[in-house]
Amino acid sequence: MAPIISIKDLTKTYASGTPALDAVNLDIEEGEIIALLGPNGAGKTTLIGAICGMVKITSGTVSVGGCDVERDPRKARAQIGLVPQEIALDIFETVWNSVKMTRGLFGYKPDDAYLEGILRSLSLWDKKDSKNMELSGGMKRRVMIAKALSHEPKVLFLDEPTAGVDVALRRDMWEVVRKLRDAGVTIILTTHYIEEAEEMADRIGVINSGKILLVEDTSTLMQSFGLKTLKLSLTEPLSDTPSTLSNYDLTLSDDKMTLTYSYDTRAERTGITRMISDLAAAGISVRDLESHQSSLEDVFLTLVEEKA
Amino acid sequence: MNWLAIKSIYTSEMKRFFRTLSQSILSPVLSTVLYFVVFGAAIGGRIQEVGGISYGAFIVPGLVMLTVLQQALSNASFGIYFPKFTGTIFELFTAPISFVEILIGYVGAAASKAMIIAFVILATATFFVDLHIIHPFWALGFLVLTAVSFSLLGFIIGIWASNFEQLQIIPLLVVTPLVFLGGAFYTADMLPGFWEVLVKFNPVLYLISGFRWSFFEVSDVPVGVSLAAISIFLVLCISAVAWIFKTGWRLKQ
User: Fold this and answer.
1) At A44, which CATH number?
2) Nearest Cα to B69, choosing from B163, B178, B159, B227?
3) pTM, to two decimals
4) Chain A to chain B Cβ contacts (< 8 Å)
5) Residue B116, Cβ neighbours under 10 Å: how many?
6) φ/ψ (deg, to 5) at A70
7) Which residues of chain B neighbour A93 with C-beta distances below 8 Å?
8) Do A73 and B96 touch (CB under 8 A)?
9) Which label site among A102, A195, A302, B239 has the fewest CB atoms less than 10 Å from its CB?
């Protein structure tokens, strides 16, 4: 099946000469959630701007649902809903009128039943007659999502959807995104919260300095770059690591009661079995074991450093 | 043409107009009433007729034009600047609409508001002076052309402005003086020689003159010249807007 978004050699250089995107290639499949992960200034928002028509493309092509965003902008844009990073609402307008206005802008006839469905799914129906200025920050963000969905888009862009929101609201927002994916909407979210990408995305694209460094399934990415550590709590303090164990990457804690073994999940053999039997042979008894998977944050930093 | 988008923009703008009705209509009406009281009754009573017309009636076309210019400018400039200020302008760029459709929506709404206020002021004027419009269709034509032209100019100012101060500066420092020196309260030949020549370079003179001619068949310049002047101004504004849309000046990065 053809990708719903296809980006070929996309380059953007601002009038000031600042390069923001450097020959970006990316295909996004219909129905997936893809997270674009990168530090501030990596080019995430510029990439979204180029796809959605807010940023003039320097070179390369972008197509949405088979329609080129520059040659056939109307058809391309009609398929896209965008929730920008900053909350941008007419504060004097009501929730209902705001959503209705956006639907009209996209050339859709009024459909009160459809809009009611969206507002209900976002728990906004009770607030439909409230002015935007009367809403809490979380509700305003929901209104932004409702507006972006008002014209039945196939693709939804969420630019830093949980930037600056509290933990409860963030979880709430993730639930909303999952529901949208279940409804068949393709979702592209940008974030610099690694936990968010790990929690939400089917695939993760890592972007830095305007370049896509890697696009991979989230689980594969975790597996292929994940370092694990195994902490061994000892029954008795150890004066020093025995020389028979020098082949293993073992670190003894300051209190001499814990050995930490680091291993790479990418390796064919982790060496855990042999290491534990060697420990037993050396007369070291273990009271408890605890393993720890490195987070995507570590993965991300490793990747950025490797490609730098 | 995405008519539904145009309707959305137009409706949204008109809603704001009616939401702030006291500010939208009462304020210009009150100003005009004061002009009538001061210039029409207090001072006008001591001024001879101008071109065979009572001074109170003579200033009506000028006052209407003054209001139309100011309202068209401020409504259009604020209309497009407000979404820039709140950030909601991103919706216009991401929606499947052309700049021409955006323009029709905003300029159409601004011109409509200016026209509504013009009619309210004309109705108000009838309480103070005996008014008869000799060429109503010409009057309507001048009114529409002026409202649309200055809405276009306001639209350009709204796109150019990057803060509220800039939004006010051109209407205050350029347009208001042009209106007062454009023959709203006098004819050009009432001025001393140098000023009489100078005001001929003022485009607003041609608008007021043409509009006044449609009321009383009295004008500073031939009506054809007035029509040509407003048409040239309209073409200039359209050209500037077309250039802005083509280049994305102050709109796109």
Assistant:
1) 3.40.50.300
2) B178
3) 0.79
4) 80
5) 17
6) -100, -40
7) 12
8) yes
9) B239
Return the H-helix or E-strand segment holding A297. Answer: helix A296-307
Find the residue in B nearest to A102 (Cα): B91
Burial of A126 (0-12, 13-18, 19+ CB in 10 A): exposed
Q: What contacts A87, CB < 8 A, 6 or more positions away?
A: A137, A140, A141, A144, B87
Q: Would you state the structure tokens that stand for residue A97, as one six-digit string?
A: 């009128």
Domain endpoint, select from A168, A188, A223: A223
Tell me the pLDDT tens digit for each residue of A204-215.
998 888 889 889
Quote the domain boundaries for residue B36.
Answer: 3-247
Give me the amino acid identity at B66.
L
Contact A304, A296 (CB under 8 A): no
Express each pLDDT in B162-179 by its tens digit: 888 888 887 778 777 888
Instruction: List chain B residues with CB under 8 Å of A104.
Output: 4-5, 7-8, 11
Number of structural domains found in chain B: 1
DSSP label at residue A92: T
Is residue A304, in this structure, part of any structural domain at all? no
How many Å apart are CA A140 and CA A131, to the nearest integer?
Answer: 10
Query: Using CA atoms, how far apart are residues A265 and A227, in angstroms rounded to an integer?
Result: 6
Residue numbers in B near A82 (CB within 8 A): 90, 94
Query: Which regions of chain A does DSSP assign to beta strands (E)?
Result: 5-13, 19-28, 33-37, 59-64, 67-68, 80-83, 155-159, 186-191, 203-208, 211-217, 227-234, 250-252, 258-264, 286-293
Contact B157, B82 (CB under 8 A): no
Kindly report the number of other CB atoms within 10 A of residue B103's CB atom: 22
A300 or A4: which carries more pLDDT confidence? A4
User: Which of A56, A104, A105 faces B253 most closely, judged by CB atoms?
Assistant: A56
Nearest CB neighbour to B95, from listed A56, A84, A106? A106
Dihedral angle computed from the Cα positions of residues B205, B211, B215 and B217, in that order, rounded to the nearest 10 degrees: 60
**Helices and strands per DSSP (H, E), number in chain A:** 10, 14
SS3 call for B9: helix
Report the SS3 class of residue A86: coil
Q: Domain tally for chain A? A: 2
Q: List alpha helices for B161-222, DSSP H.
A: 164-170, 176-180, 193-198, 203-216
Predicted-complex ipTM score:
0.79
